[in-house]
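hey can u check if this looks right to u? its 183 residues, i copy pasted from the old doc so theres a chance i mangled smth
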Amino acid sequence: MRTRYRIGGLIALALAAAPPSPGLAAAPGARTLCLANETVLYSGRFARALGSVCLAGERLHYRYGPPGHPEIDIASNDDWSNVHFGQVRGGGGGYQYHVRFTAGAWNYVIFEGAQGNLTAAPGRRWSGIYVGRDARQGTTLAPRGRAIIAEGWADRLREHAPRSRLEDESLEEVRDGPWDAWF
């Protein structure tokens, strides 16, 4: 079982380690931190903040913070070396997809999944954000209400990833590695 930390303390530590936001503005009351010219792949409300994954041309962004004022804005490097993609399959068609952004020692994992037919709650969907230095000790944030999840977001992410990362399979999490996990 994962060790759970107080969300506020871990988020504060993560904010201190994250690159500063350039002051992007979205409309107050918005349901996403993506800009008007960006594609929303994921966006959820977490307490007083939003967490969004946005596609801007060939650049992927993870943003987190109050509506209109993200405190974290991690953009993919040109070669997407700070972005990793994972998927886990479960019984009866269950699955989970995630995208992991790294910034220094911190990992920000945005995930979504559904339980399969062999589980107690077939079709139940979930999503959220996991923040931690490793896959064992961190905090999982669950969105309040239903998150916005673009249909086929995992495929769209791959369509825009650098071809070199797809060809050498370095975009994918290492099979049976520490990030090949359910969140």
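Residues 7-167 form one domain.
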